[in-house]
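User: I'm writing a short report section on ligand binding and want a predicted complex to refer to. Could you take this sequence and zinc ion and write out the structure as tokens? A short remark afterwards would be nice.
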Amino acid sequence: MNPEPDLPPLTLTPRKSIRNTISVDVEEYFHPSEVQKYVHAGQWTSLPSLVEPQTRRVLEIFDRHGVKGTFFVLGWVAQRQPALVREIAARGHEIACHSFWHRLVYNLTPAEFREDTLRAVRAIEDACGITPRAYRAPSYSITRRSLWALDILAECGFTHDSSIYPIQHDRYGIPGFGRHPQTLTTASGPLVEVPIATVRLSDRIIAPVGGGAYLRLLPYRYTAAGIRRINQHEQQAACMYFHPWELDARQPRLASGWVSRLRTYGGLGSMAVKLERLLTDFEFTTLIAAHGAPESNPLQAHTAHT
Ligand SMILES: [Zn+2]
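Assistant: Sure. The structure tokens for the complex follow:
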């Protein structure tokens, strides 16, 4: 069989070349939207906290691989576990913001979103003395109906956002949104948008790649092939994310219903090994290290509302 002349064998190309982004959403096991269907915020303080040991495990794995990542910290966690946030920063990682209450942005008014964001920024500043410049919305809830949030993020001093997943999903996503990082022009200034990694399978089909759930639930080769395709065919960096609770197979099972349980608890036991492989096979850095400041960003500017 004749090989395709314009498709070089992927295994022969250098494995580490483009610096991808590895990001961690620092929240408790009872914060994911799938779990919040069964546990309301009034119950949070009565549940055992596991975020510190779970995040320490992530920090140890990152240290072992010499990797620096971006940690999107929930303000609620920063307020209760300030020493953990200080330790993440002390180990050289980037401190970023994951809201205060982990509420879906499209369910908030602009005023509520601004209040939640500023409260989270204050909690993170109080914990570690660092003002976060990158933001990630809970459950990628900046969608077509909440694009106004990007204006508020720039107004609040953020330079980077990573809240848009350019796929079709039942709870989030903006199908058709640019798949690669770009500088958006908001009413309050420029904002570098770093979407979660996807691959284009056809004109109409975009498949998700970045995400702990895909790493947990699917064979490792799915994620690896996706990143290689983005790095080698498109010469772009991939933005990956996961949560500390995704490495803990012994966490309390609060979600019920088979879809929620599969999405939240499937593959927990294999996650650490897969993460180690990912950090071995690919180059990773922080979000701002990979994508620069908006004013110096060579990416073409786009208006957020178009
Ligand atoms: Zn989250």
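A remark for your report: The pocket of zinc ion is lined by residues 25, 27, 31, 98, 102, 138 (CB under 6 Å). The mean pLDDT is 89.
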